[in-house]
Amino acid sequence: MLTPNPARGEVVVPLAGSPRRLCLTLGALARIEAILGLDDWSALPERFGRLSARELLAVLAALLEGGGEDPAVLDAAPVSVPEAVAAVAAALAACA
Q1: Residue 32 and residue 62 in contact, taking contact as beta carbons nearer than 8 Å
Q2: With contact defined as beta carbons under 8 Å apart, do 87 and 10 qualify?
Q3: What are φ and ψ of residue 31, in 5° steps?
Q4: Of 6, 18, 50, 96, which one has the fewest beta carbons inside 10 Å?
Q5: What is the C-alpha separation between 56 and 33, in angstroms, rounded?
Q6: What is the DSSP string of 15-68?
Q7: Cβ–Cβ < 8 Å for 38, 56
């Protein structure tokens, strides 16, 4: 069973039927900025309002990697858009 470290901003969420750890690390943030073509993190909230499904999955992959998970799990099992949105929202809320 995965146990999140809330002091680190980790969350454990169900993805494709399995619990997965997500974390917004500095590395994950840098990958997200690059994926979304941002110059800095201040534009992130506005940009999140218009993510494509592909970008959403790329953000989710960065958060999985930040949590020590293999982002290839997204290729192995289907993840619905609502499931991905909930997971990303949970990871971002854990950092607030």
Answers
A1: yes
A2: no
A3: -65, -40
A4: 96
A5: 12
A6: ETTEEEEE---HHHHHHHHHHHT-SSGGGHHHHHTT--HHHHHHHHHHHHHHTT
A7: no
5 or 91: which leads in pLDDT: 91
CA distance 75 to 84: 13
pTM summary value:
0.92
C-alpha–C-alpha distance, residues 14 and 61, integer Å: 14
Residue ranges covered by each domain of the chain = 21-94
Beta-strand pair 18-22/11-15:
antiparallel
Answer yes or no: is pLDDT of 96 > 80. Answer: no
Summarised one tens digit per residue, pLDDT across range 39-86 is 888 888 888 889 999 999 999 999 999 999 999 999 888 899 999 999
Token digits of residue 59? 């953000």
Task: Report residue 87: phi and psi, to 5°.
Answer: -65, -45
Structure tokens at 2: 């995965």
